[in-house]
Amino acid sequence: MVSAIGEDGAGLGPWTKKPPVLMEKGSMKSRSLRFGWVKLAMLSGLGVTIGIGCADRSWSLWSENEASPSGGAGESSEVLTRADIDEKYRWATETIFPNKAAWEAEYAEVAKMVQQLATYKGTLNRGADHLLAVAKEKDDTESRLDRVYVYASLLSDEDTRVGEMQGMESRARSLAIGYGQAMSWAQPELSSIPFETLDSWMRENSELAVYRQAIDDLFRQKKYILSPREEELLAMAGELRSTPGSAYNFLSNADIVFPSIVDEEGKTRELDDQAFYLFMRSPDRSVRKAAYEGIVGTHAKHRNTAAALLNGAVQSHIYNVRARGYDSSLQASLSGPNIPVEVYNTLVSTINKNLHLLHRYQEIRKRVLKLDDGVHAYDLFAPFIAGQKFEYSYEEAVDTITAALKPLGSDYLKAMKKGFDSRWVDVFPTKGKRSGAYSSGTYLTQPYILMNFHGGYEDMSTLAHEMGHSMHSHLSRKTQPYVYSDYSIFCAEVASTCNEIILQNYILERTKDPKKKLYLLCEFLEGIRGTVFRQTMFSEFEQRIHEMAEAGEPLTADSLGAAYKKIMMNYYGSAYTHDDLVDNYWVRIPHFYYNFYVYKYATSYCAASNIARRIMNGEPGALEAYLSFLKGGSSKYPVDLLKMARVDMTTPEPMEDAMKIFEGLLDQTEGLLNELGMMN
What is the pLDDT of residues 434-452, one digit of tens each? Predict the structure, then answer.
C-alpha cells in the first residue's frame, strides 16, 4: 500500500492526500505524473504509474530514463494536427467525462465534498460505524478528485499550447493541494486513538477491517507523526519545499539556451536536451563530442546556481528528517513504503561487486570503435553497428507485442487486447502534444497511455513498457478496493520492464541476420547499463551528497563535481578516460530532486529480469505468482508483494540474476563481433 507517511517520507499520511508532483523527465519535458497521493491510512494515489516516469521510459535505448527520441532531432515527416488522426488512434477521454461542462460540474461537486470532509475533524473517535462512514466518504472524494485531475491532465497533454486546458489542470492541481491541507488533521487524529480501540472496532465491523493493513501501517510510523498543528504547518510548507525542484525545472527546461552543432551531413542543427541522445548515438565521434560539450558545457555554465538549488532540495529532505525524527534522509525516504535500508545497500554492494562486467563492456567498446585514447563520456552511447532498421506499423507492433507476451497467459492477453481495442492508447505525435510516453488513469477510469509512435523497435518496446504499467493498474484496480488499488513506486517499474524483457527475447530469438542481431544485443546491453548500472551509480551519488550535507559539509559545485567524478571513474574502469567537463554532468539530472528515486529503476529491472526468466523457462507456478503480484495493489508492503512473485529484494539474488543476463549478452556480443571480424 502507499505509505502512511508517503513515498518520500514527507509525512502526508492516512487521511491526507498528497498533491500531484509533476516531474519533468529531464530533457524529455514529458510528465511522469507521479501522483503517489496518500490514501486513508487509507491511502492511495491517482494511480498514475511512472516511471519517471511514469512520462515514463525506463528502458534506456537512448534515454537512460532521461530522454526519448520522440519529437527529437532528425524527424522528417510533417507533424499532423489532432484532427488529422483517426479516432481509433486517440485515447477515449470521453469515457471519463463526455465534455468539459460535465467536468466543471464534477469539479464543483468535489470541491463541496472536500469542504464536507474537513467538518469531520475531531469526530473520528465516535466509534466503528462513524469511522467507516468517514472512510467511505473519503474514498469516494479521493477517487472522484483523481478522476477530475486525470481528465484535465490528459486534455492538457493533447495540446500543450492550449491555455484553457492548462488552466483546467492548474485548477485541478490546486483543488488537490487544498484537499491535502483540508485533511492534514486526519492522520494525527486517527493515530491518537489507541490501537487497541481501533483493533476492537475492526474485529466488530468487517467492512472497517478492510482498512487493517492501512491502519497497521499508520501505527508502524506513528512515532514520525506530529501534532495536528505541526502537520498543518508542514503541509503549508509543501510549496516552499518544492521550490528548488520547480526552479531547477525552469532553469533546465526553459531558461537554458543551447548552441547549434554541425551534424554528420554537414547541416547545422540546434541542440536541445531531447536531441541529446540521438546525437550521442552518432557514428561520427566529432558530432558526439560536439553535442556532449554543447549540452553538458552549457549546463556547466550554471553549475553554481544548480548547486544551490540541489542543496536546497537536499536541505528540504534533511528538514523532514529532523522535524520527524528519522535517522537519515535515506531511511526517511524508504520508511514510507517500508523498504528496508538493506535493499538499497544490497543493490549498491552487489552492483559494485559486478563492476568488472561493466569494465569488460567498455573494453569491448574501446576495441570495436577503435578508441585509442579510451572511451570518453561522449562514446558511451555510440552503437557498435549502425544502419540497422526495425520498422513496424502500429498494428504490427500491437500484433508483435501480443505474440511476444503469450507466456503471460490467456487472461492477461485477453485483457490487454481489450485495452488496445478500447482506445487506451493515444498513438501518434501531433502538433503541441506532450512528448515522451506514460501510463495514466484512475480507479474510476480505464488506463490511458500516451505515446509518440514513429515505427521503430524502440517505439514498440515503449508501447510494451507502458502497457505493462496499464495492465498492472488494471489488474490492481479490478481486484483491490480503492484504498489498496494503487501500488508503490518501488513496484511500478516491474510490470513494465518484465514486458520489455520478454519482448526483447522474443525478437532476439527470431532475428537471424547477424548484423541486426548484433544491433539488438547492443541495445539490450545498453538497457541494463542504463537501467541497472547507471541508475545505481546515480543512487550512490545521491546517497553520498545527502551524507555530506547531513555531516555539515557544504554542497558546492566543486564538492558535488568531485563526488560525481570519483563514482564515475569507479564504475567505468580503466578503459574509460575521464574529462573534466564530466564533473558537471550531475547538473543535467532532474532525478536528484526526487528524493532517492532512481534506485527503483535498478531494483525494478532486477526484479523483472528474475520474474521474466522464470516465466519464460516455464517454472511451475511462476506465472500465477506474478499475476498475484499484479493484482495485489498496495494490500501488502512492496517488498512483501514482490515476495508473492517469488522475488526477495532483501537478498542479492535478483541483482545477481540481472548481472548473469548482462554477462550472457556480453558473451553473445563478443561471439558475433568475432564472427563479423569487428574485434580486430
Answer: 988 999 999 999 999 999 9
